[in-house]
Amino acid sequence: xxxxHEVLRDQVARFLAREVEPHAAAWEETGMVPxxxxxxxxxxxxxxIAFESEHGGGDADAxxxxxxxxxxxxxxxxGFIITVLVHTDMxxxxxxxxxxxxxxxxxxxxxxxxxxxxxxxxxxxxxxMRSAMPPEMMAGVAAANVTRKKNFTRP
Length: 155
Fold this sequence. Notes:
Layout: H1 3-20, H2 24-30, H3 35-43, H4 62-72, H5 78-98, H6 101-113, H7 126-130, H8 135-142
């Protein structure tokens, strides 16, 4: 284990204890994680640690990113963990790996700072999903109750 990994684990544990654990039960009740806690996570340098420093990231390798996910999983609040990991490991990597130089310049600093939160959207139309998913999975996705929040804004 690398000494930097222990520092990261400690930093995440302190953030969870201070910013998440005292409030997350209420967040779970309302079904949302407040954007301000994600901004504070970005300010602490914890969003986008695997992205290049030129975009506000931490230049971390894949193992360090895994250590981050492991440290985050020490929270007992799944909604918070999933919100962060969808942002850092599912949605924003698409822009990071496939975006143009202009797109990265426009969006990546917002992503790593927590000003811009990324997400994944699914099209639940049965005809489009039929060829991509087995029927038992298609039914579950099509039945998902997805709502758009009134405070949603596009970047």
